[in-house]
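Holo prediction. Input below; ligand is magnesium ion.
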Amino acid sequence: MGGGHPAETGEVRVNAPRRVLDPREAARLRARLLRARRAILLCDFDGTLTRLRREPDAVRLGAGMRRVLEAWRNAGAVVGLVSGRELADVEARAGISGIWYAGGHGYDLRDPRGHVISFATARDEERAERVANWLAGRLRGIRGIKVEAKRASVAVHYRQASPAAARRAEQVVREALAREPKLQLMHGKRMWELLPARRVDKWTAVLRLLEKERARNSDFVAYLGDDVTDETVFRRMRRGMTVRVGGCEKTAARYRAETIGEVKEFLRWCLREREGTEKIAHRARRVGRRARNRRAGAVR
Ligand SMILES: [Mg+2]
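Structure of the complex:
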């Protein structure tokens, strides 16, 4: 009994995910936070850190949530936003410097220093442009449908369409897929996305990020998301804390948060718990510096 956290053993879970702020979980989480060499916080953007809007363009990161993420960064944590949006788009909406961004469902990554890693090929980009044009032409007459051309993929949003219009649009999307066998369909929240049929997804982006950061077992890693595209990470991240945000359907995440407010509260709680460790580390660095200065003084 007691033993490791299930996240560390990779055992098959049969229980429903627990609430992140469940008091029965607090002691265990606190211990993990205090033990960790470093904290790595990875979050989806829409619906996880921000409320979903009828118009995806209206989504912005709230000031309170931005402050929490900046506080994580300032405390020395690795912070990353992993989104289906284009890299530049999610970065502009979040507006936080010195963190990782992954855009286009993992096709583009940018490290905190601004270095970009892209998994999209020129062929992917040509194909996406061709398909976006074709879809835009075919869907023009259908109300409430929006085609979004991305670098390596095409999104078709139907958040503002009637059920009948959405059904017609889906027919067209299926036609596009039949024409372009190198694309695969992903069904997100009130949107379809046509992506290159290769294994690039949020998980491959997360994996690359963890690799680049030389993440170790001694790090505390958390991934928060609200959508099917985040489930690839929940399923495959054996170590770390996975959190499904929003109404809980079937999920592979080990934890859940009902609302964006709960996410914010949880992130603040972690910071407070972790702060003790940071203070200790800071004091140790200061003591070390003084000792070095004394030694340097003695030599002079
Ligand atoms: Mg989302």
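The chain has a mean pLDDT of 88. That is the main takeaway for now.
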